[in-house]
Amino acid sequence: MVEAMDAAENVLSVSSLTKRYASTVLDRCDFAVRSGEIHALLGANGAGKSTLCKIIAGLVPATSGSMSIQGVAYTPNTKQQAETRGVQIVQQELELIPTLSVAENVFFGIMPSTLGVIRRRTLFDRARDALDRVGLHDVRVDVPVGSLGIGRQQMVEIAKALNRDCKLLILDEPTAALSAAETETLFHWLRRLRNAGVGMIYISHRLKEVAEISDRVTVLRDGRQITTVDTPKLSTEKMVELMSGESATRQTDQYRSYATTQPALRVHGLSSASVKDISLTVYRGERLGIAGLVGSGRTELLRAIFGADQCYRGHLFLPPSEATIRFRHPSQAVAAGMAMVTEDRKSNGLLMTQSVRNNTTLNSLWQQFSNLGILHHTKESSVVNAMCASMDTRCNSIEDDVATLSGGNQQKVAVSKWLVRDSSLLLFDEPTRGIDVAARRRIYEVLESLAKAQKAMMIVSSDLDELLQICDRIAVMSAGRLVEVFDRETWSDDAIMRAAFAGDPGALNSSERHRM
Amino acid sequence: MKALRSVWKQSLIEYAGLLAVLVMLVLIFGIRSDRFIQVSTFVSIANQIPALIFVSVGMTWVLIIGGIDLSVGSMLALGSAVVGFMMVDHGFSMWLALAACLLVTSLCGFCNGVISFGLGIPSFIVTLGMLEIVRGLTKLVTNSQTKFIGSRVEPFGEPLAWIQLSPAFLAAFFVVMFSQWVLTHTVFGRYCIAIGTNREAVRMSGVRSAPYSISVFVISGFLCGLAGLAHVSRLSSSDPNAGVGMELLAIAACVIGGTSLMGGRGSVICTFLGVLIIAVLQSGLAQLGVTDANKQIITGAVIILAVSFDVLRSKWVRNGPFDET
Per residue in A220-269, pLDDT tens? Predict the structure, then answer.
C-alpha cells in the first residue's frame, strides 16, 4: 500500500543500483525523485554523483540494480531511449555544437523538416519561443552557439532540455559558469518547472545554492548513499560533515594576512583586445581577488599580463627592476617568474592524455629534470611523488593519465606544476571551479602557504564568498575595465556587486528585467 | 646501458601485438612456401628496407607532434638526385655528395616546418605543396633522366660479409634505436609528445613549441636524405621518379605501429616493426607469385587488420576484454 503510494508520487525511483569499473564506483544506491521536487545530490568528487546521473540518463549501463519511472520499469541503453521516457540531462561539459546556430542546437535531432529539408522559419520561430521561455530574450537564434559566452551557452543547453518532453531534468553543476544574475534567473525558471510538476536532480558544489533551491538532499560518499533529508533540516556545515565524513569544526578557515608593502608587479595602463587601460599593483605575500561578471574581462586580464593575449598599449614593471615590460609569449612571463593556472583544464591547462608525471614537470624539464637535455627520470619521479603526497593528489601511480583523475585531483596537478617551477607571481583563474569541498580546502591551504612564502597572487573567481574568505583585497572588473579595488575594511557583497555592474549598463538592465 | 635495457624491455611488453602479427605472417609464408624461412630471405628483406625505415622514422616524429609530412618521397628523390649530380656531373667525392644531399633535404624540411608553424598553415597542405615543388626540382636537377653512378656508392647498400647486413640497414637500425631513446629519455622527446597532445596547453605552460616543431620537420628532411642515399646505393643510380607514393607506405608503417594521426602518441620501435610487417608481406607475396593486383588488395587488408588488432588490444589492456561500454 505504502509502496503503491510512493510509486505514484515518485517520478523516478532507483533501487540498489551498482556500477563497477575496475573498482566499485556506485554501491547499492537507493534514491528517488518526486515529481515537482528539486532534489540535490551532494558528495565529494568521485563520490559517484556523476555516475549515478549518467546511468539515469542512459549514458552508461548499470552493473546491477533497477530503476523505474512513474512506477514503470526503466532500463535505458542510450541517451535517446532515456529522452523518449522524459529524462533530460544537462551535463557539466556542454554538448552543444559550437558551429551550428542556437536554433539548430536547441532542436538538434528533432528539427522541423519537409523531406529532409529544414524549415528554417518554423525552426527559428520555435527556437525563439524556447529561448523566451527561459528568459533568453536578448539571444539571437541564428548566431553560432560558439559565439555566445559560456554562461549563455549553459542557458541554451537548459532551454534545449526543457524544449523536449521533460519529466525528470538532471542538472550537473549548472551554475559553475553562470554569473550571480544568471544564476538567479536560472533559479526562477527551475522553481517554475517545479511548480509545473517536473522532478529535478541538482548537482552543485555550492552549498549555499543547494540550501536555497533544493527541497531534499541526498548525500553520497564513496559510492554509497549516506542519507536523504529535507533541505531545511540541514545546515551547510552539516552538509560538509556528511560529505567528507569528518567533523566540520576544524574546517573553519581563519584568515590571516601575509601581505607586505613591497610591490611584486605593477601594471600600467595595460590594454588588449578585451581589457582597457588596466592599472594595478600586487604586493608580495598578497592574495588579490579579481571579481566581476562572466565576460567582464577577468580571464583576459590575466592572459594579457601573462603574455597569452597581445597587448597593444601599456606595460608592466616587475619591481625592484624599473624596466618596462610587455610579454609577447607566456614563455617570457614564465622566465620572469610568473605562473598561470588556467580556468579550462581540458583545453589549455593540462595534457589530458598524458601522465601525472609528464604534466607535473612539463614547465621545468630544462631547469630541474635534465642534464644536457637528457631526462633525469629518478629525480623526476621522486619530486612528482613528493608533490602528489603534499597536495594529497589521489592517483594509483604517477604514470596514470590525468584524464582518469577526478576534477579536484586534476586541479591539484595543474597547481602542482607551478609549485615545482617555484614562481614568485601566480595567476589563478577559477582555481576551485567544479571541485569538491576537500580539494577546495587543499587549494586554499596552498594559497595560504604561498602567501606565507611571500609570493604574490591574483585570483579570479565567480564565487564571491570564496574571494571574501581568502583575499586581502578584491579588484572588480566590469566591461573590460578595472572599476574599483576594495580592501577588507571597505568591501561588502553589495558594494562589490554594484561595482561589477557599473561599467556595463546593458548587464544592469537585463538583470533588472530578470528580477521582474 | 640501463637506458638501452629499459627500451628493450618496453618493446617486448608493449609491442607484443605487433611481434605476434609479424611472427604470424612469417609462419603463414613459411607454410605456403618451403623456400621462405631461410636466412637469405630475411637478409634480402633487411637490405631492401633501409630507405623506408629512415623515412618512416621521420614520419613518426612528425605525426607525434600532430603534423604530417607528405613530401618525404619527393625529398628522397631530390636527395638521390643531388648525390648523382655531385658525383657524376661534377666528380665530387661520395662524402661531399652525401653532405650536400643531407643539407638540401634538411633545408626542404626546414621550409616545411617554418611555413607550417610560422604562418600557421596546416602541415598537410604545406607538405602537399612541397611534394610537387620538390619533385619538380628533382626533375630540374636530373633533367628527368636516370643517372648511373656506379660502384662508388654501392658499399653503403652492399651486405657486409661477416653479418650479411648492409651498412645502410645497420645505420637505419641505429637511427631507430637512437630515436626511441631520444623520444623517451630527453627533454626534446617529451616536449614533442606534449606539443602533439595539446599545443595550447604547452604554450600556456610557458614553452615555445615552434623550435621543437620546426626541428622535427628538419629531422624528417634529414632522414629523407639518408633514405635517398640508401636508395642510390642499392640501385647504383639516381632516379627522378624514386619514392613516388612512399609517403603513404611510411604513414602505413606508422599507423600499423600504433602512432596516432592526431598526435601525442607514437613509438619509433613500433614503426620499425610496422616497416618489417609491410616488407615481409610484400616479399612473401612476391615469392608466392601473387599478382600485383592481389598484392595490393592483401597489403591494404593487412594494414587495416593490423591496426584493428592493435586498437582492440589496447582497449583490452585498458578495460579488460569484456567491458560492456
Answer: 887 888 888 898 888 877 887 787 765 544 444 578 889 899 999 999 99
Distance CA B43, CA A116 (A): 60
Asked if B315 has any chain A CB less than 8 Å from its own CB, the reply is no
* ipTM of the complex in this document: 0.83
Note the pLDDT tens digit of each residue in A263-287.
999 999 999 988 999 999 999 999 9
Peptide bond into A330 cis (omega under 30): no
Containing H/E element for A357?
helix A356-360
Report yes or no: B314 at the A interface, CB cutoff 8 Å.
no
Contact yes or no for A353 and B187 at CB 8 A: no
A-chain CB neighbours of B206 within 8 Å are 330-331, 333-335, 363
pLDDT of residue B315: 67
The answer to whether B207 contacts A363, with C-beta atoms less than 8 Å apart, is yes
Write out pLDDT tens, residues B1-15.
455 565 566 556 667
Dist. CA A170–CA A85, nearest whole Å: 13
Nearest residue on chain A to B193, alpha-carbon basis: A354
Residue of chain B minimizing CA distance to A377: B185
**pLDDT (tens digit per residue) in B249-259:** 999 999 988 88
CB contact (8 A) between residue A351 and residue B194: yes
Rounded CA gap, A101 and A141, in Å? 7
Residue A331 at interface with chain B, using a CB cutoff of 8 Å: yes
Scan residues 207-226 of B and list those with Cβ closer than 8 Å to A.
Answer: 207-208
Say what the pLDDT of residue A511 is.
38
Taking the CA of residue B205 and the nearest CA in chain A, the distance in Å comes to: 6
Tell me, yes or no, if A350 comes closer than 8 A to chain B by beta carbon. Answer: yes
pTM comes to 0.77
